Amino acid sequence: MQVSRFSKSFLILVVVLVSFSSLFILRRPILAYKDPWSGHFFGEGGVEIHDEVTAKVPYQGVDGGVIMGKLGNETAKAALGRATWKLLHTMTLRYPDVNPTEDQRLALATYFQLSARLYPCGECAAEFQLLLKKYPPQTSSRKAASLWLCYLHNQVNERLQKPLFDCANLDGTYDCGCGDNPLDTKAKSRTDEETGIDLIQGG
Question: Which of 14, 69, 127, 130 is the most buried (most CB within 10 A)?
């Protein structure tokens, strides 16, 4: 059976169009949006675009490789991971809600960078450093920081083939019961009855 030149051309055109359109259908969408509350523009993974504050981390010791060695005990590694995620999520959920100072923003970004060097599981720290390079810490608000960290947590969960966490439920999962009252350092301190040590109020 002989196929006409028109049929061949038409078939080639259809194959090219289907291949070309599949690039748009199968390609992951770019998740960029503008936060209506803060006015910040976020790219993929909640990463703020053109964030100059977290780009300049002035402290020495932040840039560098992983310090700790491999952690061979899988039980200890899992327990350390759960405790660390709880600490980090609680920290970002207690971070200033709006307009943190430049010092506060640098402090949070630096904490994450140093954690990626000093984390007791060397192979985990190396993975976290790669994630921080791809998705730098977001420190413009509590919402930005907590959603950024949740995105990173889900990147780790995906790599470990664990279920992804619903980032809308962060408050319920990592609620420390601390409240949002600022630390009142001028308030009259109370003393612990057993030890006689002054207690800090409001924290």
Answer: 127
